[in-house]
Automatic annotation (TrEMBL), chain A:
It comes from Larkinella arboricola. Keywords: Copper, Disulfide bond, Metal-binding. Residues 47-210 form the Thioredoxin domain. This is Protein SCO1/2. Cu cation binds at residues 85, 89, 173. The lineage of its organism: Bacteria, Pseudomonadati, Bacteroidota, Cytophagia, Cytophagales.
From TrEMBL, chain B:
GO terms for molecular function: electron transfer activity; heme binding; metal ion binding. It comes from the Bacteria. It holds the Pfam family Cytochrom_C. Residues 1-20 form the signal peptide. Keywords: Heme, Iron, Metal-binding, Signal. PROSITE patterns: CYTC. The lineage of its organism: Bacteria, Pseudomonadati, Bacteroidota, Cytophagia, Cytophagales. InterPro entries: Cyt_c-like_dom (IPR009056), Cyt_c-like_dom_sf (IPR036909), Cytochrome_c-type_DH (IPR051459). This is Cytochrome c. Residues 29-117 form the Cytochrome c domain.
């Protein structure tokens, strides 16, 4: 009897730990947050409103529209690059390809790479780049559009993308991968130029997928 | 007399090993510098293991293009705008030039590549590399 009691105490303790760690395991939500107070059923309720990626509209490697709607209900990874970039982009594409290969065919996961050099990187150029990289279909889309729009979108993901005469190729952009969840909240930022960064991203995508599975 | 002979032999051996290690030292220096320069200037695209990336960037490791050594030396410095065929695959992306690399830098990178992936065991001496680069430079002029 005593040992049964002891066991059940242990089970309870373990269950509590599991409960704790499962909530601690949730990825953070990035960006500014607001609170909204409203009255529901006569009671005052305060809700936290998290930062969301605003709508965007570009053209993809197949010259078809790609927008925030394309990514509705998807976990996606996004970055900024340009085809002729000699410095960090090849590294980023090497790492992104690893992540893509891991989640290839997963209907919940998508990818979005924005070019910051739309004058050179037309949809045809992006298409050729994508197929050379071994990317087909629509799971990984390569977006181009007016420069100002791309730069603005970069800001919305909290990464740098701008013109800079001092940078090789005349353009400056961050080497980050940004992880966005199905509600368009930013859930992670990763160094896209290193294997470790990409490893962390792959682990976090798994964690995020697990969060949705639990719901 | 015998002692003199022995002395000479010892001296001879001493100089020979000293010479050998001088050569070895030089090769080591070329190789290590080549590795560092490769990591900094080449590995972004061609990867640390030299295997390239898909159909975007051609491999160096296991590449049949290495037999064109003079072309390889030149494209390290001057880049490449024409499509090239490596192991039967066509690569059409231009390779940027690296004008910041000195002749000795190119020699070190060449030594690294050819010792690591090209079955060579000797250095690509800067004198020879400079000669090749001079020829290419003249050819590049319109």
């Amino acid at each position: 009897m005593h040992s049964v009691l002891k066991n059940s105490v242990w089970v309870t303790v373990l269950a509590l730990f599991a409960a704790c760690s499962s909530s601690e395991n949730r990825l953070p939500i990035f960006g500014e947050r607001d609170t909204v107070t409203k009255v529901v059923d006569g009671k005052t309720v305060t809700d936290t409103v998290y930062y969301k990626i605003p709508p965007f509209q570009f053209v993809n490697q197949d010259s078809l529209p790609v927008s925030d709607k394309t990514y509705d209900g998807k976990i996606y990874v996004t970055d900024f690059f340009f085809v002729t970039c000699p410095t960090i982009c090849p590294k980023m594409k090497t790492q992104m390809k690893r992540v893509y290969d891991k989640f290839k065919g997963n209907p919940d996961v998508m990818f979005l790479s924005h070019t910051i050099d739309p004058r050179h990187d037309t949809p045809a150029v992006l298409k050729e780049f994508a197929s050379s990289l071994g990317v087909t279909g629509t799971q990984w889309q390569f977006a181009t559009g007016p420069k100002e729009e791309v730069f603005k979108t970069g800001k919305s993901y909290m990464v740098v993308a701008q013109e800079d005469a001092g940078a090789p190729g005349g353009l400056l952009h961050s080497g980050h991968f940004v992880l966005v969840d199905k509600e368009k909240h930013v859930r992670g930022m990763y160094d896209g130029t290193t294997e470790e960064g990409a490893d962390k991203l792959m682990a976090d995508i798994d964690r995020l997928l697990a969060e949705y599975k639990k719901q | 007399m015998k002692r003199v002979l022995i002395g000479l032999a010892v001296l001879f051996l001493f100089f020979q090993t000293a010479c050998q290690s001088q050569e070895e030292l030089k090769k080591e220096k070329y190789f290590v510098e080549g590795y560092q320069l490769y990591t900094e200037h080449c590995a972004n695209c061609h990867q640390t293991d030299g295997k390239g990336l898909e159909a975007l960037y051609p491999p160096i490791n296991g590449s049949d293009y290495l037999k064109n050594k003079e072309k390889v030396i030149c494209l390290i410095r001057f880049g490449q705008n024409e499509p090239i065929t490596v192991n039967g695959k066509r690569f059409s992306r231009p390779m940027p030039a690296n004008p910041q690399l000195t002749d000795i830098d190119v020699a070190a990178i060449t030594t690294y590549i050819y010792n690591k992936w090209g079955d060579e065991t000797v250095i690509s001496d800067v004198k020879e590399v400079s000669r090749v680069l001079d020829v290419c430079r003249d050819q590049q002029k319109p």
